[in-house]
Specification:
The complex is a heterodimer of chains A (132) and B (295). By secondary structure, chain A is of the alpha+beta class. Chain A is built from 6 helices and 5 strands. Chain A has helices at residues 7-18, 21-26, 73-80, 91-97, 107-112, 114-127; strands at 32-38, 41-48, 51-57, 67-71, 102-105. Chain A has a 5-stranded mixed sheet with strand order 3-2-1-4-5. In chain A, helix 1 crosses helix 6 (114-127). The longest helix of chain A has 14 residues, at 114-127. The two termini of chain A are 19 Å apart. Chain B has one domain (8-282): Rossmann fold. In chain B, 33% of the residues lie in helices and 18% in strands. Chain B has an 8-stranded mixed sheet with strand order 1-2-4-3-5-6-7-8, with helices on both faces. In chain B, helix 4 links the parallel strand 5 (108-112) and strand 6. Classes of the chains: A alpha+beta (132), B alpha/beta (295).
């Protein structure tokens, strides 16, 4: 199982989210747990009022989540690259045009938080490529 | 004296299929009429940079209007008794009504996204009454954008529609411009963006119509952004391939909203497209040569 995106990257991502001024403005109602699955490596991201309070690696059945994004590592690599190719530059683009990029779980909960979730996903891109 | 921009906005009432619509129109410049059509769920503010650009307004009388239900145009009486659903027919009828009410003689019509789609139908149906069209992000068939969450009581429609369209910008366009377009999207009325996408992704199919366009009568220029995933470059290339004599240009590093997301980079492409549709030598009244400012 490939260590992707790696503990250092996840730590930087969490710090970037938690320091983000915009999420401080818009994140008040964004409290959830969502999953990010990179290939076969799955994480549960616990969010409270727009802040990441924990990232659980390989969550077991007692970690509940509302929704998540799942994709092969090759797709995440393009999304997280400094110069993403067209169709891989935004999660809504990938949902429309990249079949391997999947929104799983309760899509209503995801879209109710579209603005904050979109910001949080864009901070993934701003965090940079893993292992760069 | 206040330093007003050279844009004037006014209202007029038009009749569309027996229904009265109070429409907002803004304009700038003089010369060949250039009627501009905004994107789905947005309004004419998207054209503010073009209307402030002397290289355009010295040759063209630029006009942009808000579609009914959009921007500052008022919905028709009894709007609350029917679901807003734009169709190819109602879109054409509205543009034609504005065109006639404004008395535009052989205009150029420029549109983006759903506007870039409908200009193809205008060129097919009214090619003897147009100088030409400029299609930004033009597709003849564009399924895939419609979904029920765009107008849903459990979801903030303004925030979803604005976020849903934000990624259509290029990641390389200045953030301040992308955010401005986000703001315009967030201001759309409930269900308006979805009603427009009903036209764009469910009703629209002009793949046969575009074969009737005769570019010796009506010039066709098409520009599409590299990062547009709603109307991909391949979709516009298919349109260009079906219209003999059309001018198509891929805009590197651009997204779905060139006129608002990155006007400085869009400008050279736009001026080339306008030159294709209305060459300087052919324009009436020997206007001044088109000047391109440094990017």
């Amino acid at each position: 199982m490939k260590d992707y995106p790696g503990a250092d990257w996840l730590s930087r991502y969490r710090d970037n989210v938690n320091a983000d001024v915009e999420l401080d403005v818009i994140g008040r109602w964004f409290t959830t747990t969502f999953t990010l699955t990179f290939g076969d490596r799955r994480y549960a991201v616990k969010v409270d009022k727009g802040r990441i309070v924990d990232i659980v690696a390989e969550p077991r059945l007692d970690v509940r989540s509302e929704f998540g994004f799942r994709s092969p590592i090759e797709v995440w690599d393009k999304f997280l690259s400094p110069n993403p190719p067209p169709l891989f530059h935004d999660f809504f683009a990938m949902l429309m045009r990249v079949p391997e990029f999947v929104l799983e779980g309760d899509s209503l909960a995801a879209m109710q938080n579209a603005r904050a979730l979109h910001r949080m996903m864009n901070i993934m891109r701003e965090t940079g490529a893993p292992h760069a | 004296m206040p330093e007003f921009e050279p844009i004037t906005g006014r209202y007029l009432t038009i009749d569309v299929a027996g229904e009265q619509h109070r429409i907002f129109v803004e304009e700038a410049g003089s010369g060949v009429p250039l009627l501009c059509l905004h994107t789905a769920g947005n309004d004419s503010r998207q054209y503010r940079h073009m209307m402030n650009d002397p290289a355009v307004t010295e040759r063209f009388h630029v006009l942009a209007f808000d579609m009914p239900f959009h921007g500052r145009s008022t919905p028709p009486d009894r709007w609350w008794l029917k679901r807003f659903r734009l169709t190819t027919r109602s879109y054409l009828d509205t543009i034609r009504a504005v065109w006639k009410a404004l008395g535009l003689e052989r205009p150029v019509v420029l549109g983006c996204s759903m506007g870039g789609a409908i200009v193809l139908k205008l060129a097919a149906d009214y090619q003897n009454e147009l100088r030409g069209i400029v299609g930004l992000e033009s597709s003849a068939y564009a399924p895939g954008r419609y979904n029920e969450f765009l107008h849903h009581p459990a979801i903030h429609g303004g925030e979803l529609c604005a976020s849903y369209t934000y990624g259509l910008n290029s990641p390389y366009s200045p953030e301040v411009n992308r955010r401005e377009n986000w703001w315009y999207y967030s201001q759309s009325g409930p269900g308006v963006y979805q009603g427009d996408v009903h036209f764009y992704s469910l009703d629209w199919d002009a793949r046969e119509d575009i074969k009737r366009i005769d570019t010796s009568r009506c010039k066709v220029a098409l520009l599409t952004g590299e990062y547009d995933y709603s109307c991909t470059p391949a979709m516009s290339e298919a349109v260009a391939a079906a219209i003999r004599g059309s001018h198509y240009q891929l805009m590197k590093g651009m997204g779905h909203f060139p006129m608002i997301e990155n006007y400085p980079d869009f400008r050279p492409y736009l001026l080339d497209a306008l030159e294709h549709v209305v060459p300087v030598q052919a324009a009436a009244g020997a206007p001044a040569p088109m000047q391109r400012a440094a990017r």
